[in-house]
Amino acid sequence: MTKLPENVSLITGAGSGLGRALVDRFLCEGSHVGVLERSLEKAQQIEADYGDAIVVTVGDTASPADNAAAVERTIEKFGRLDTFIGNAGQWDFGTALRQLPLDAWSAAFDQLFAVNVKGYLLGARASVDALRETAGSMIFTLSNCAFLAGGGGPIYVASKHAVRGLITQLAWELHNQVRVNGVAPGLMSTEMSGSVALGQDRLSLRDLIDSAGGEDEFARRLGIPFVPAATDYVSAYVLLASNESRTTTGAIFELHGMLGPPPSPPT
């Protein structure tokens, strides 16, 4: 028995990594899926792989018009919208404060916040009226950096803390109309890149792991048993999109427990 029968979801940043894993799982659970993806190449690939099971809009999550178009196209194809998932993300590769070039930090801040915060807010605004009609839900992707330091630099960590505030505020504003929740994954090997301003747009998390000697060596250095896959995190999204969590709003599911060795036992 599927958990999302007849659900219609819109997922941003769904061309690879966690977004692609969400598309796979939501389709398996019975959902119809709309996608907003910036990369034309990735959009064409996901469209070729799934055909009529999805509808793809090529666009930028930081664009109000592109968000509106993705919502409109999803509803036009499937008749409604039940779930909006803000998932597109950008990392700063842990660039510390004193490493930020003085001539680039402002542009880097704008670029990263445009994806990680502005894009979520614009997606929420574009989808809210349709979600109110279906008593649907919004789900936002955070990270361990929404709660802890050290998983990124100050720009990235600040952006993920900002999304915590966004969830809290929207859950309050949309109380008894639309549920608003989040999922905070931990480490995973994906193609998430960094900002153009910092010269990180051609790098990815996967590149970082590969340069360290692969997943086994990277996990060993961090003191964790393995590097999680994107598929390790998707069940929380399914739960939050389903009726099984119909009483849940303003919550963030923290899935980033594998951060290093456990603390020493008390003596």
From TrEMBL:
Record key words, sorted = Oxidoreductase
Q: Which residues form the signal peptide?
A: none
Say which domain of life the source belongs to: Bacteria
Q: Name one Pfam family in it.
A: adh_short
Q: Which family does it belong to?
A: Belongs to the short-chain dehydrogenases/reductases (SDR) family.
Please give the name of this protein: Cis-2,3-dihydrobiphenyl-2,3-diol dehydrogenase
Q: What is this organism's lineage?
A: Bacteria, Bacillati, Actinomycetota, Actinomycetes, Mycobacteriales
